[in-house]
Amino acid sequence: MLKLRSSCVRSAAALLSPAAAAQPCARLSTGSQQQHSTFYEFRTYCIRPDQNAAFLKLTNEKIHLRTAHSELIGYWSVEYGGLNQVFHIWKYDSYAKRAAVRAALAQDPTWLSDYISKAMPMLTSQYNQVTYLVPWSHLKKPPQEGGVYELITLQMRPGGPAVWGEAFHAAVSARDAPGYGKLVGAFHNEFGPLNRVHSLWWFESADQRAELRHKSHTDPRVVAAVRNSVDHLDHQENKLMFPCSFSPLK
Predict the structure, then answer these.
(1) pLDDT, tens only, 150-179
(2) Phi, psi torsion values for 165, nearest 5 degrees
(3) Domain 36-132 classified CATH 2.40.50.140?
(4) Would the CATH topology of 36-132 be identical to that of 134-245?
(5) In the CATH scheme, what architecture does the domain 134-245 have?
């Protein structure tokens, strides 16, 4: 009996050994898994202050050369939260498709001569991020044209959606459901800073946005959801943007 007990003890010890404990657990996850291959590239360009008007004019005239290769979701001029900036979103079905588009653009003489050669000297920097729509969000069009857009970017603490996903969802839903803005889409980063999420909102005007923002601060549901989300937040920023005349989202 003693030998049997000793054997059982040794077996139990083996199960609890560091090597055994280090084995990965299939149940571990950082959150909801991406279900679709479609992704959205966020691009931010900073323009030389003396070239802002010229850059927007050139882009308006030549953007058709670019949209002939892939789908443009929206193109905005940043009014608050970043001077002399434009922000645009491009849709791709796969990384192979994006690579093919970039290769084709590099071989497009009209694009290179009529746009790139003129636009690049007007810029001071370019920045991009690859994002996916979060599983509970769908890209929506605003109810009408002629409004303004707010891009809210949240840098969440490390841990992934399994840690902060529900809190982010609740904070966005608490603002969207009562109509404190029209949610266009909610995104999470795949490339760029990780644990970063974005929500894109539409308003009739900057003044309407200010009015609804003030009103939401008196709504107990919104206040509670935001406070819960803040527990997972590292920092945040936002931009108020006007859609360009050639932007599909207006």
Answers:
(1) 999 999 999 999 999 999 999 999 999 888
(2) -60, -45
(3) no
(4) yes
(5) 2-Layer Sandwich (3.30)
Q: What share of the chain in percent tops pLDDT 90?
A: 83
Say if residue 44 is exposed, middle or buried (CB neighbours under 10 Å; 0-12, 13-18, 19+).
middle
Of 182, 150, 184, 153, which is closest to residue 78 (Cα–Cα)?
A: 150
The answer to whether 59 and 243 have CB atoms below 8 angstroms apart is: no
What would the mean pLDDT of 8-32 be, rounded to a whole number? Answer: 44
Strands 39-47, 123-133: pairing kind: antiparallel
In a 13 Å sphere around the CA of 223, the CA atoms on its Cβ side amount to 6
Q: Which amino acid is at 142?
A: P
Instruction: Count other C-beta atoms under 10 Å from residue 23's C-beta.
Output: 7
Question: Is 133 within 8 Å of 40 (Cβ atoms)?
Answer: yes
Asked if 142 and 203 count as a contact pair (C-beta separation under 8 A), the reply is no
User: Could you give the CA distance from residue 80 to residue 120 in angstroms, rounded to a whole number?
Assistant: 23
Question: Which ranges in 50-115 belong to alpha helices (H)?
Answer: 52-67, 95-106, 109-111
Q: What residues does 92 pair with on adjacent strands?
A: 39
SS3 27: coil
pLDDT digits (tens, 9 = 90+) for 26-45: 444 455 555 679 999 999 99
Positions of E strands within the chain? 39-47, 71-80, 85-92, 123-133, 148-156, 182-191, 196-203, 233-243
Question: By CB neighbour count within 10 A (0-12 exposed, 13-18 middle, 19+ buried), where does 103 fall?
Answer: exposed
> Domain residue spans in the chain?
36-132, 134-245
